Recover the amino acids of this structure.
């Protein structure tokens, strides 16, 4: 049982919307954003062109956040987290993956975290994307490659037995309820509000 969860999945799988709603409804008390996405918007980055320095920066920011989490009295949920960031690196900078993995394994919460991996059917990324509405085919290809690496990266971090896979289909309400139930059935703390 644990109190820290990560939700990973490709672009348009519903991660951000689900975490925001979990927080708003009091299911979780901490909602951690996707650090790489925050940097993408703040710096106007080109997603598929980031080098190993960027991968390391994101990982170090994740590790700093990991160390600051108070996991005893709150239910924390983090978007993408180390498995997702490793998947990006596996696609963009595969030679850097071993170094990044060594860094990720320094996480103070690695042994206590539980995961939810949202998977999307083929074509859904191109259909849903607003961020890349002018590059839908590229988005489908690039994020499908990320999606293909997620299981591998979850395995690299020895998180397979603590990660539940949920297919994120068109009905976001059903997906939300599955995620909520997974968190409520796994956590050692009661939800904040009923």
């Amino acid at each position: 049982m644990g109190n820290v969860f990560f939700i990973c999945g490709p672009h348009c799988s519903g991660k951000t919307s689900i975490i925001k709603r979990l927080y708003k409804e009091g299911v979780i008390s901490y909602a951690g954003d996707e650090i790489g996405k925050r940097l993408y918007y703040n710096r106007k980055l080109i997603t598929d062109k980031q080098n190993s320095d960027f991968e390391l920066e994101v990982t170090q920011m994740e590790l700093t956040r990991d160390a600051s989490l108070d996991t005893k009295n709150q239910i924390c949920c983090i978007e993408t987290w180390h498995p997702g960031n490793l998947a990006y690196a596996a696609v963009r900078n595969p030679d850097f993956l071993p170094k990044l993995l060594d860094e990720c394994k320094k996480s103070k919460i690695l042994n206590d975290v539980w995961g939810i991996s949202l998977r999307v059917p083929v074509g859904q990324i191109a259909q849903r994307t607003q961020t890349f509405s002018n590059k839908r085919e590229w988005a489908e290809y690039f994020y499908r490659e990320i999606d293909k690496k997620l299981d591998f990266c979850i395995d690299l971090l020895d998180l397979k037995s603590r990660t539940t896979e949920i297919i994120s289909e068109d009905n976001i309400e059903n997906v939300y309820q599955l995620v909520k139930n997974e968190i409520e059935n796994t956590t050692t703390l009661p939800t904040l509000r009923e």
